[in-house]
Each structure stands twice: as structure tokens, then as C-alpha cells.
Amino acid sequence: MYSVDYVNEPERRDNKEIELEFLGKDSMLFKQTIDFGSQLYNENSGMGSQVYENLKKFCKGKKKTEEIFDSINPTMLNNHLKQFMDGLSAKVFRTYNASKTLQEELRKKEKLAGWCRLSPAEKVIEYNNVNREVAILCNHQRSVSKAQETQLENISNKIDTLKKQKKMLKGILKFLNSGKDNKKIPLKKSQASMKEDVDGALAKAKKMKDKASTNEEKIAATQADDKAKEMCRELADFKFTQAHLWE
Question: Which residues form a coiled coil (predicted)?
């Protein structure tokens, strides 16, 4: 649930603004200053002003660590919502709100001059743009997956390697300009031995997979294939770290 610490009224204000900061769905940060007195939250029978007054009332006299909605929990809320529509819950309402907002924003686009002249591909672009805007409005964000984290880490490592290579090349250039013995310049190491090992491991893994019939043989073949792929990655990394050198 949400504590009083998540709500803050700006010190200088002449409206019904409230600052909200908390971790929402999938632990994604929600941080916005909302003016509940604005037309956006009060038009079409909106109750922005009432929400503002209620939040002030719920937080009054409470410590920062106390719950804002201390008299209700998700189960009670969902049971209340089901009285209005069978199957309605906070999660369903969140999805409905996002869908409704998307539909309204798309309708605005369709009313613009020139919409009818857009090609299907251009309309897809407009749809994707609106979809992103709605995601921001509804605080729908994706957390970074493990695969993405690994990819970003690899990119970061490659950038560090390139920086080191650049620094080394500057040193080599300085050394060459000095007219000193060129034999001291580092050269690219042979990759032939590593490539032979990789090719052999891949061939062995393929042979094991083709012949595997029992579960034990299939497991062994999979392990051999994983090892061969790891050797491929190591060879690729080695080539990358040596790319700036001469043979």
C-alpha cells in the first residue's frame, strides 16, 4: 500500500497541486506533480477537486510511515468495484483506462487535416507515437530484462576496450615518430590455434547431437554445444581486443 511519505504539497502554490512519488507496477518509479484543480481532472463530471480534498484529509495528522488508505485494502476495493460490473477490478480498470485514453488520443489524430491522405505505413507510425504517449500518461513502462542488461554490459565493455585501444594506438604512433626500434611495437597474436579448437569443438558437438539417442547422450551433446558456443564467443572477443594491432 501507499504511505503518507509518497504525497507532498508544494510549499508555494496557488492551485490544487500535489506531488506524488512512489514505485508503481513492476517497481517502476512514478513521479509527477498533479494539479487536481485543473480542467483535465474536473471536466466531464471529473472529481479532481474532490480527490485533492480527500488526499489532504487522509494524510492529515498521520506520520510519514503511516498508510494513506488505512481503512481499505486491494481485496476490499475489488469487491466494491464488482458491485458496479461483474469482473471489474483495479487491474481491469487500469487496462480499461489505458485503452480508453489510447482510443481518445487516436480520435484526435483522425480529426486532423491530412489524416486521410496518410499511407498505411504512416498511420502505423502515428499509432505507435500515440501508444508511447499513452504509456507515459499511464506510467506503463517495461523493466529491463536480464538479456538487455547483459547486452548493455557487453556494449559497455566494448566501449572500454575501444578506449584502451585508442590510447594504445596513440602510444604506438608516438613511438613510431620517435624513430625507435619498431620491434618493441606489440603485434597481433595468432588466432589460428584458437580457431582450430573452436572448429573442432563445433564439429564434435554436431556429431554428438546427430548420434544422440538416449537422454544422457542428449544432455552430453547439449553441454558440448554450449561449451563450443562459449569458445566461439571467446574467440570473437579475442579478435575484437586485437583488431587495432598489425600482424
Answer: 145-172
211 Cβ contact partners less than 8 Å away, ≥ 6 residues apart: 217, 221
Cell numbers of 239, please?
A: 579478435
Please report where in the chains the cell 481532472 appears, as a residue: 41
Distance of alpha carbon 16 from alpha carbon 7, whole angstroms = 13
Instruction: Cell 490544487: give the residue.
Output: 16
pLDDT tens per residue, range 41-97: 888 788 989 999 998 898 888 888 888 888 888 899 999 999 998 999 988 988 888
Q: How far apart are CA 225 and CA 230, in angstroms?
A: 9
For residue 223 the three cell numbers come to 553441454
CA 64, CA 7: separation in Å to the nearest integer? 9
pLDDT for residue 4 = 67
DSSP 67: B
Distances (CA, A) of 204 to 158, 215, 220, 225: 30, 18, 11, 8
Residues of the chain above pLDDT 70, percent: 87
Contacts of residue 208, Cβ cutoff 8 Å, sequence gap at least 6: 217, 220, 221, 224, 225
Q: Are 11 and 33 in contact (CB under 8 A)?
A: no
Which of 138, 150, 134 minimizes the C-alpha distance to 26? 138
- Domain 1-71 = CATH 3.40.50.2000: no
CA angle 7, 8, 9 (to 5 degrees): 135
